[in-house]
Design brief:
This is UDP-glucose/GDP-mannose dehydrogenase dimerisation domain-containing protein. InterPro entries: 6-PGluconate_DH-like_C_sf (IPR008927), 6PGD_dom2 (IPR013328), NAD(P)-bd_dom_sf (IPR036291), UDP-Glc/GDP-Man_DH_dimer (IPR014026). It is a single chain. By secondary structure, the protein is α/β, with parallel strands linked by helices. It contains 11 helices and 10 strands. It has helices at 15-26, 47-50, 86-95, 110-113, 131-136, 154-162, 171-199, 205-219, 236-248, 255-271, 291-317, and strands spanning 7-11, 30-34, 54-55, 67-71, 76-77, 83-84, 101-104, 120-121, 140-145, 165-169. The strands form 2 sheets. It has an 8-stranded mixed β-sheet, with helices on both faces. Strand 1, helix 1 and strand 2 form a beta-alpha-beta unit. Helix 7 packs across helix 10. The longest helix has 29 residues, at 171-199. The protein is globular, with a radius of gyration of 23 Å. The structure holds nicotinamide-adenine-dinucleotide (NAD). Nicotinamide-adenine-dinucleotide binds next to helix 1 and helix 3.
Length: 321
Amino acid sequence: MKVSEEKYVIVGFGWVGQANAIALTQLGYDVSYFDPGNPSHHYAEFSDLYKKIEPLSSLKQNDARNTCYMVCVGDKVSEEGEQDISNIKTVLASLRGAKGGVMLRSTILPGLLEELNYDWYVPEFLHEKKAVEECLDPFFFVIGKKDGARPEPSVCALWQKRAGKTFSGTAREASLIKYLSNLWNSTRIAFVNEFGDAIGRPTDKKRLVEIERVIDFLFDHRMYMRYGRAFSGHCLPKDTRAFRSWYEKNGTKFPLIAGVYESNSRHAQLEKELPLLPEWYSEWPDRHISGWRALSELLYAIRKNVAHPLLAWKRMTGGRK
Ligand SMILES: NC(=O)c1ccc[n+]([C@@H]2O[C@H](COP(=O)([O-])OP(=O)(O)OC[C@H]3O[C@@H](n4cnc5c(N)ncnc54)[C@H](O)[C@@H]3O)[C@@H](O)[C@H]2O)c1
């Protein structure tokens, strides 16, 4: 199907919905949205593109065989880790019998996905500060298809081409990858912060610099691995709680994941006394490398793939010709 023949309806116009809507509009698609919550605009710098995205007064107003519903409605997670997807369920129930296909983008535990009705599960990996850019060129494109799902909309092929890494499998696998990514990010942040807290309190700039020098030497200022504020925001705390609680229901303990949440909460308390702690924002690394870094990566690859086999051959043959 041609780009111009498809219609994308974004359901849930929050952080994720708006970033997807703007990116799709920029890619030349016909985009509208449905959200009864009257949400405010999160990405002011794209005010021109917002004007092209039509608000709908009813969910199936633009329903047709060439419509793709992109469901970006939020989940909620209680302090105990219970995931509430009732808003998502309501939308999916209303879309039953729709002529268009349904792409689910919300973060949903694998066990809860089974009972839902949609065509493709494509979890979102964006960071809020670079959300639109990361919707145009996703770092990961992960798709889980339901049995009997209809052919994917054309944006999937486009994303597949533009993505840093792609995965195609079941919805369960796609959800597990999403949670693995978030849990790994929260684990790294909590670990680095706990290590920093253990070696000293950044009560003045000098102490903070010492902690940072130690940590940054080993981790090269990499994102999620810099000493600073606790993780917070829309996703990491709720997803860490939800995953732990779901998998602990059958009696298995996850001390590391449980510890991550506890450690982060303690660090967040400490933060109130330590105003010097910096706040770091994350984004996926730039995939296009150039200059000196590109050259050093090339030299490394040559050493690894060309020089090493020669050495291995020499070792095996004892240097015989
Ligand atoms: N924010 C992020 O950076 C991020 C990143 C990756 C994944 N996610 C996941 O994406 C999902 C959405 O996150 P978000 O940050 O955009 O949430 P959000 O709260 O900003 O937006 C959700 C929107 O859904 C709307 N909504 C609720 N019920 C609805 C209904 N019945 N019909 C239509 N719209 C409805 C709300 O009014 C709200 O505007 C969550 O599952 C989240 O975990 C978020």
